[in-house]
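Two entries, shown back to back:
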Amino acid sequence: MFESEIKKPRSGFARLNQIKLPLWVTLVLLVVFVGLFAAREFTLEGRENRVSEERRAVAQRLETEQAARRAIARDASNAAYQLFGQAFAWAVRSALLRRNLDEIDQYFAAITANPHMRLAVLVDQRGKILLASDRQLQDAPFTAHFPATLLEATDVAIQPGDAGQSRLVIPIQGLNRRLGTVMVIYTEP
């Protein structure tokens, strides 16, 4: 048979020669195509980096806002507890002047009925616990369970305690002497 009749598969270059495209034009087009592909990849990578940076910035902004909200809530809470402490000091003072410890005990029971209030104690001027919502602490020395510096407060104060708890220290003043100190241990809601 004739060799010319048998069709041989042609290579890619042969096809290019058949359509009369020079090889260097093909190479230029290939380089341009590779260049466009690389530029697209670099552009996408740059966009992804910018997006991830923006996400980090937003996350940091949210974290800062949450910290600010917690600080504002803590300050508002502390102001409310101090106001409560001042009013409570007058109620306890009145009951102490009348020597009515049962009334103070009822106050303590009502206060510790709140799930955020852990403990309420009344300490006399010598440092002995007169009343406590936890009966095991009654008649014990205050300094055996708590720091003595808490009894030195001259104004209603909030001090940090153990395990995320706070201590509301309320000095009870008589006309010319200190009658005692109330301490309420609570956790933030």
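entry 2 starts here
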Amino acid sequence: MAAEEQEANADQHRGLFDSLKTLVATFLAIGRTRLELLSTELEEERLRLSSMLLWTLIALFCAGIGAVMVTLFVVVLLWDTNRLLALGIPSMLFLLGAALSWRVVVVKARTKPRLFSSSLAELSKDSEQLNSRP
């Protein structure tokens, strides 16, 4: 009888340790999944920012060349009649364009999407599920 009790206790301890190992393995798998999601989001954000920077630089270069050409055209066209007006109007337009562009940058910086929002949402779901279990 004592041997049967020892055997039952040994089975119970093995079952407890197996459950504990399964629990730890589950938490490690959840943590790994969340880290993979986080790294994917970081990579997507890096690619998005790189693309935006490249296209911004291309747009600025083209706009700068175009602005210089338009200014030269207006100055040459009006040089004999209104020299100051030919230089003043394009200058004011460029300053207005710079101010509007800066305003757009400020608005975009304030309304950017929250970084790691998907990861945070998944962690919130995990937390709710763990708290709702008896």
